[in-house]
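Chapter review: from sequence to fold.
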Amino acid sequence: MNLDEIRSLIRTVPDFPSPGIQFRDITTLISHGAGLAATVRHLADRAATAEATLIAGMEARGFIFGAAVAAQMGLGFVPVRKPGKLPVPTLGIDYALEYGRDRLEIDPGAIPPGARVVVIDDLIATGGTALAATDLLRQAGATITHALFVIDLPDLHGADRLRGAGVTVEALIRFAGH
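The token string follows.
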């Protein structure tokens, strides 16, 4: 399945969660077996090019794509969690959202020395979560050179923020607007 066919499986929901927003809903993509499998293959091909030794994904939709890519490649997967979800001592980072703050945490023992981690998520918008995850994984000793996304909203400049942190950013699909 090519990228145009995958793009056609992503539903746009107007005015969600607020007026003027065009929400890109991946539910219709992940519920389509061939579409999900093709998306994972495209992401895995890019992760292989980046010489990944480990895949990380942010809660929650990054778990869907990241774990599937890791399994396809025979690599481990590191979940980047919301606070309070891990049963062991964690390494965490607080970061700014558009209207407030949030926190991400990881199990630092999940990052082996010298790991080349590729970060995967479903969508990059402003880049705050992806940048925080990148910083957090680097604090744990990971080398992060690539981040992969199913969707990029380039008008929100998140990919540019990650590039400014020395990360190569690739997205399968780009949608103009918010």
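Two observations follow directly from the output. The domain at 51-174 is CATH 3.40.50.2020 (Rossmann fold). The chain has a mean pLDDT of 96.
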